[in-house]
């Protein structure tokens, strides 16, 4: 092998990729830089290799847009449809954000960056001891498991029912559906309940604008969020079509603004929604992460008429990789969504389900939450301190009383796209408000993931990037 | 509590269900018999309770179709759409089967029935020791885990890549997507690749007819399956629309017929599909469960042009509750489906993924398979013996060389709906061929789940039920 030149080895690797059908016609091959990094060679070596494969007719370069596979008459892609990513990933209403969101999703997996973006607990809050102990217990009690019932493991549903009881929500286990995270619950609702042509009322800004949740046939109406959460007055100036309007709401530590509705506002909203027959999807995934005092009761706790579908998750509080969340509501609706669910993936992992059950039943979840709250409070306070120190001239923010995020509003209009790129060039990932359909110059900064040192370096980077714009 | 009469307690329970919004307007309450069983009372007590709640205006009876909730002006269901289950669960093309499939799905969870239906390994084949050992190792090595990358855990993808290598499929880990079972992979393909208005070619009979996989906009064309699998000649008499036709195929131990295509037939099919640019979804979930000799190579092993998307799973070989399967194919298609997937549930359970990785890497999976094959062979042979002894006058069948099922063909036309019901009355669950869109009098009998004693009792029940029809 030693005597074969590197460019020759790389050319062979490219040919194999095409030959095995892994790189199909019409697809773009990795950039010269990426290949050079992978093989640990100079770009010139990669250029030689690519020229060699080009001369065989397998590749073709398009100026300014990379090298494409062009051989191979019967490729799969040509038989179905070309992978037009721009058409496919209709991320949001604002074209500018599409690319940014995709980019952020990929950047969040990189360990070498300062993550103000990541909506996850930092590694220091991972409940290693608790999970190890629970895994041990689960393993000892392990019984054979196959396809479960449609709603999910009964023991877990019973524990979630008890957990909800503590926050005033009375829901029997048979009205709870275990899902693979909150996004999965929301997706089931959009595909399983909403009709084509439905009108969806959404907060603005909202993290839901940054994900591809609603089919194009649904009309999205944005309702602004202010200090006290959703602007109820503006919501009820809208027209509702009976049986085809629905409200998606994240009333507690809203993502991205971190605002919460007061109890009073919740009552008014629920009353009005009942009057107008507007059903509510209550997304309450940050509730357990209050930092100063427990938040007001969920809408679901006030709901006597089955007006609210309630969605929760353990992704933010334990670990996203468990893929365990829930959906609770009227038995008939839950049953219906369970059927939809069984037609797509036959349920959530049994192991994840019994692990979470054990964490809840043993009280380890509650103890873990107490530790997490302490640590998150420290991290929030540190980020607030850094913001005051370095950015108080140019921006304002509120102190979030729970969740992961500080919502930074710049006093003057800034070029947020440019700020995003400049920070990234310095290895800092920030989420500009426009990906949540915010029209102002805003930033969502997560204090959950980065270390104190990273926070300081990150804020200084934002500051120096801004200095170009002021 | 003792002095409160039972009917009063039941009435209170009903009121609570309605009050909490668990039973919403328009929904049917459980039958009198079900409620009586739940409370351990006579039906007359339930009737009294229901009359009481009816008199309060909360319930109303419709003759012949049960008791419905009628109160409660602002229920969720009235605001969205009434739970019309018949409209919602469009299980198959044959109206008769809808109800039967739903019924079978529910019956499969009951432990008191003889299960000729269940497509799962019996509890005696559950790899208890192997999973316990692997769980121990996984727990020791556990690192913090969050949202994973879009394709799934790299270690697992690497092990699957090695596993596929052994059956002649060369696929790099970056061309493998981890999914939550084979159905999930098929669902991703139908939603992520197929256009509305696509034509889908399916085997007939096929288990895919019994699940609600394809949106109504897609045209389904059925191609018959015979001794040597798919009727290739008939397939290529069809018209194909370029870029919007696709073939779904289960060429090895096909469900429900258990037939396998020969290597020769596979080559011919692949050549022709390449010529006509017809892409293939190869569903190969039973491959590892060969009983007599390893089956012919998968189409994917013969595919040099990225014509085939290859789907596999550990649901049939280890345990369905893991929810781990894979999809392998051209890198661009896999990437695309990974994006679709990340927009619905953010990946599969990390715990399930690392557990399966450990089972594969340690060689425990392969050892487990050897034990499973021995046991399945015994069970197949026993069911064949019982069939020969009791049903050879009225039916024929072939010896399956792998998988779970014996496909029984009756010599004369039988009323299969009636047979299904009569067997069920005797606590035996069978799958009549019509749920797979088979027009003949056929049965799919699983030998994987029932014990020897249950098999004997079950076959005798089928025999005696048939005697009414002969």
Automatic annotation (TrEMBL), chains A, B:
Record-given protein name: HTH-type transcriptional regulator YdfD
Cofactor: pyridoxal 5'-phosphate
Pfam families per record: Aminotran_1_2, GntR
InterPro entries xrefs: Aminotransferase_I/II_large, HTH_trans_reg/aminotransferase, PyrdxlP-dep_Trfase, PyrdxlP-dep_Trfase_major, PyrdxlP-dep_Trfase_small, Tscrpt_reg_HTH_GntR, WH-like_DNA-bd_sf, WH_DNA-bd_sf
Origin species: Neobacillus kokaensis
Start and end residues of each HTH gntR-type domain: 4-72
The UniProt record lists the keyword 4Fe-4S: no
Keywords: Aminotransferase, DNA-binding, Pyridoxal phosphate, Transcription, Transcription regulation, Transferase
Lineage: superkingdom: Bacteria
Entry similarity comment: In the C-terminal section; belongs to the class-I pyridoxal-phosphate-dependent aminotransferase family.
């Amino acid at each position: 092998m030693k005597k074969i030149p590197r460019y020759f080895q790389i050319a062979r690797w490219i040919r194999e990729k095409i030959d095995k059908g892994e790189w199909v016609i019409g697809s773009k091959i990795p950039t010269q830089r990426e290949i050079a990094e992978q093989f640990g060679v100079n770009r010139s070596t990669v250029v030689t290799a690519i020229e060699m494969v080009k001369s065989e007719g397998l590749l073709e370069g398009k100026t300014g847009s990379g090298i494409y596979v062009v051989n191979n008459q019967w490729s799969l892609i040509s038989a179905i449809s070309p992978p037009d990513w721009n058409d496919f990933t209709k991320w949001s209403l604002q074209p500018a954000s599409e690319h940014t969101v995709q980019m952020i999703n990929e950047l969040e997996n990189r360990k070498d960056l300062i993550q103000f973006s990541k909506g996850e607990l930092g590694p220091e809050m991972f409940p290693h001891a608790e999970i190890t102990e629970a895994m041990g217990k689960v393993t000892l009690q392990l019984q054979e498991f196959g396809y479960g019932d449609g709603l999910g493991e009964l023991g877990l549903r019973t524990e979630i029912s008890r957990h909800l009881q503590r926050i005033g929500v009375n829901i029997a286990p048979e009205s709870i559906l275990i899902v693979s995270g909150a996004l999965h619950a929301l997706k089931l609702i959009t595909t399983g309940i909403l009709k084509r042509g439905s009108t969806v009322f959404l907060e603005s800004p909202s993290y839901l604008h940054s994900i591809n949740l609603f089919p194009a046939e649904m009309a999205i109406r944005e309702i602004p969020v202010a200090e006290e959460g959703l602007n109820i007055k503006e919501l009820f100036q809208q027209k509702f079509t009976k049986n085809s309007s629905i409200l998606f709401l994240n009333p507690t530590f809203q993502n991205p603004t971190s605002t919460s509705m007061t109890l009073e506002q919740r009552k008014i909203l629920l009353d009005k929604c009942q009057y107008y027959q507007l059903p509510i999807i209550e997304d309450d995934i940050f509730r357990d992460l209050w930092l100063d005092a427990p938040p007001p009761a969920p809408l679901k706790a006030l709901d006597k008429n089955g007006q609210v579908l309630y969605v929760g998750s353990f992704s933010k509080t334990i670990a996203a990789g468990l893929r365990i969340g829930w959906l609770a509501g009227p038995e008939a609706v839950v049953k219906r969504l369970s059927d939809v669910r069984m037609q797509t993936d036959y349920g959530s992992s049994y192991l994840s389900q019994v692990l979470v059950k054990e964490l809840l039943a043993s009280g380890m979840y509650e103890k873990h939450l107490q530790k997490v709250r302490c640590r998150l409070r420290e991290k929030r306070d540190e980020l607030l301190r850094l913001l005051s120190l370095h950015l108080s001239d140019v921006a304002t923010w509120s102190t979030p009383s729970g969740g992961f995020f500080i919502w930074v509003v710049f006093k003057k209009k800034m070029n947020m796209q440019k700020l995003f790129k400049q920070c990234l060039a310095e290895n800092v990932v920030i989420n500009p408000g426009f990906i949540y359909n915010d029209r102002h110059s805003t930033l969502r900064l997560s204090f959950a993931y980065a270390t104190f040192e990273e926070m300081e370096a990150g804020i200084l980077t934002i500051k120096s990037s801004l200095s170009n714009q002021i």
